[in-house]
Design goal:
Blueprint: E1 5-14, E2 23-31, E3 35-39, H1 46-53, E4 61-66, H2 68-71, E5 76-79, H3 92-97, H4 113-125, H5 141-153, E6 159-163, H6 171-188, E7 191-195, E8 207-211, E9 216-219
Parallel strand pairs: 3-7, 3-8, 5-6, 6-7
Antiparallel strand pairs: 1-2, 1-4, 8-9
Bound molecules: adenosine-5'-triphosphate and magnesium ion (MG).
Magnesium ion binds near residues 46, 81 and 163.
């Protein structure tokens, strides 16, 4: 079967301000349906790479070629590395609805019943439904991380990017969450790039990458 390239890095370099390159001449392709586990040392450029993938920053040199459907950034969901404590009063359910931002929900209108039901369903998937009405600011770090994942799931994205999504989770939640992400991705036909330092079960992924600024090493499974 022919693999469809979703996204390709062509000799991409990136430097913050006038500093030296964080990523240098990096080339790799993500195919549709890939479930990729990426690791690498602190400062290797993993978070920077995810920011390039979701369009938060642009390459300093080189190009990123995207399948036309991915040009629409709405097709990408990004779970950032550190879950900042929210400063504004927002319920857990509302914060999941924020995942629909730019997709099928306008903040000028009230959220639709269907959207709220879907947000509730996503909270159930991460076992946080009993917190739906709570203030997001009252949650623990691990609970906030689960809600952030629910916020990504509700997007039904073509590409799901997760930056160390299980850091704050206990051992049992960790393995449940990874199985959930993997099964939802397979069900929805999503591609996934997940960053983790943990030795995770290879069965959840089809490719394993190690990044070191200039080189993306792929270990064959
Ligand atoms: N906003 C920024 N401005 C300047 N330099 C930055 C910025 N963000 C990151 N860096 C630098 O870029 C390099 C790569 O950072 P990045 O966050 O991508 O690493 P990482 O692989 O995600 O590391 P970790 O495993 O610690 O999360 C680091 O040396 C870091 O200091
Ligand atoms: Mg990082």
């Amino acid at each position: 079967m022919n693999k469809t390239a979703l996204l390709t890095f062509n000799e991409v370099s990136f430097a913050y301000a006038d500093n030296k390159n964080v990523l240098e001449s990096l080339s790799f392709t993500i195919y549709r349906g890939d479930r990729i586990l990426m690791s690498g040392e602190n400062g290797a450029g993993k978070t920077t790479l995810l920011k390039l993938l979701c369009g938060q920053i642009e390459p300093t040199a080189g190009t990123i070629t995207k399948m036309s459907s991915l040009e629409n950034l709405r097709e990408i969901a990004y779970v950032p590395q550190i879950q900042q404590a929210s400063q504004i009063a927002v319920s857990v359910l509302e914060s999941v609805l924020l995942g629909l931002w730019g997709k099928n929900f306008s903040f000028l209108n009230r959220s639709k019943k269907k959207d709220r039901q879907e947000a509730y369903r996503c909270l159930e998937l991460v076992q946080m439904e009993s917190f739906a009405k709570r203030d997001l600011r009252e949650l623990s770090g691990g609970q906030r991380q689960k809600v952030a994942i629910a916020r990504a799931l509700i997007r039904n994205p073509s590409l799901l990017l997760l930056d160390e999504p299980t850091t704050y989770l206990d051992k049992r939640s960790k393995s449940e969450m990874l199985s959930l992400i993997s099964s939802q991705a397979q069900k929805g036909g999503w591609s996934v790039l997940l960053i983790s330092h943990d030795a995770l079960s290879d069965s959840l992924f089809n490719r394993v990458f190690t990044l070191d600024n200039t080189f993306m090493k792929e270990r064959s499974l």
